[in-house]
């Protein structure tokens, strides 16, 4: 089963996010002279790099018609493992990063096994692991922030000048998007993922190991959550047990705004990057306009509903 038609016949998913981003930028530029300045645009990219990384993993899962509500809390636990291991045990920062990513990948494995082996709904499984990850994070950290981290652990938060200040974490995020785009577009595992999202039974009949694909997707998503934890720690300079409490919904919002169908099998990974930037642009622009944070949340919710409605209309129009 070829995935090429799947990726080409999504006009709204391919074009809509870019139009929405352009419209948002034009609107906020008309409202604030500060919006289109180099420092502000650089700030937006730094603010979205964590959600952007989470959105890569979330996109892979949603392409299989799944969902992962646990990504934010799993990221927070991974970040706490990294920072506590560095502060309490004096482990080398590279080793602590590996330990944190191993923990987030393990949560992905647990999610995948429960979904494929016991046939539990992804929504219920990840809702449960979200609460488990939150509780473990609070217990392990004692609800205390971890400070005095080694410079290597926060190096990705450092910036360099390229017309404006950009963080190394932003560069890593973009590089990982390009890599994920290539894998999904030009490799057999990427085509298998789309096939499973389109029709798992048809994929099984063509010889695709659907269960292994799904488990692999959740584990890989967990690895991306661990990398997001690295960026979160690098950006804030601390291990924060309260991190990740809204990032799960932000990541899902980015994926939906980026044109990936919640029904699986349709979407382009780079759209999720555009979706993450849209979320960042709206929050930044509304902040510059002095709009209260609760109103920002309201507007974000409206954007999600509009994106899902557009996806539904696109599906009906394709029938």
Structural description of this entry:
The chain is mostly helical. The chain contains 13 helices and two strands. α5 packs antiparallel against α6. The longest helix has 27 residues.
Short description, anyone?
The protein has 13 helices and two strands; from the N terminus they run H-H-H-H-H-H-E-E-H-H-H-H-H-H-H.
- Count helical runs: 13
Helix/strand-derived category reads: mainly alpha
CATH topology: ABC transporter involved in vitamin B12 uptake, BtuC
CATH architecture: Orthogonal Bundle
Strand content: under 5%
What are the salient characteristics of this protein?
single chain, 319 residues, mainly alpha, ABC transporter involved in vitamin B12 uptake, BtuC, two-stranded antiparallel sheet, 13 helices, 74% helix
Q: Helix and strand layout, with pairings?
A:
Layout: H1 4-8, H2 11-31, H3 38-63, H4 71-89, H5 93-117, H6 122-141, E1 159-161, E2 165-167, H7 168-186, H8 188-198, H9 200-205, H10 210-236, H11 247-257, H12 269-288, H13 293-318
Antiparallel strand pairs: 1-2
Helix pairs in contact: 2-12, 3-7, 3-10, 3-11, 3-12, 4-5, 4-6, 4-10, 5-6, 5-10, 7-8, 8-10, 11-12
């Amino acid at each position: 089963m070829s995935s090429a038609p799947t990726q080409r016949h999504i006009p709204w998913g391919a074009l809509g996010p870019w139009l929405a981003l352009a419209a948002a930028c034009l609107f906020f530029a008309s409202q604030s002279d500060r919006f289109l300045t180099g420092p502000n645009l650089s700030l937006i990219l730094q603010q979205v790099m964590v959600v952007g990384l989470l959105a890569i993993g979330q996109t892979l899962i949603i392409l299989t018609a799944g969902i992962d509500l646990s990504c934010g809390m799993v990221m927070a636990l991974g970040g706490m493992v990294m920072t506590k291991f560095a502060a309490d045990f004096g482990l080398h920062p590279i080793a602590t990063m590996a330990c944190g990513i191993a923990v987030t990948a393990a949560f992905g494995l647990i999610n995948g096994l429960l979904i494929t082996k016991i046939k539990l709904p992804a929504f219920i499984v990840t809702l449960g692991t979200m609460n488990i990850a939150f509780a473990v994070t609070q217990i392990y950290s004692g609800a205390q922030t971890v400070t005095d981290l080694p410079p290597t652990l926060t190096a990705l938060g450092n910036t360099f000048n390229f017309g404006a200040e950009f963080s190394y974490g932003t560069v890593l995020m973009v590089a990982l998007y390009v890599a994920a785009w290539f894998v999904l577009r030009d490799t057999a595992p990427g085509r298998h993922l789309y096939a499973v999202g389109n029709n798992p039974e048809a994929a099984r009949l063509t010889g695709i190991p659907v269960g292994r694909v799904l488990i692999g997707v959740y584990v890989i998503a967990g690895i991306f959550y661990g990398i997001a934890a690295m960026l979160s720690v690098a950006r804030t300079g601390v291990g924060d047990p309260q991190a990740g409490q809204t990032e799960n919904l932000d990541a899902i919002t980015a994926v939906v705004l980026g044109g990936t169908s919640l029904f699986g099998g349709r979407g382009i990974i780079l759209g999720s990057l555009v979706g993450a930037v849209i979320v960042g642009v709206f929050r930044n622009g509304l902040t510059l306009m002095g709009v209260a944070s609760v109103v920002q949340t309201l507007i974000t919710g409206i954007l999600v509903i509009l994106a899902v409605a557009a996806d539904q209309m696109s599906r009906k129009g394709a029938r």
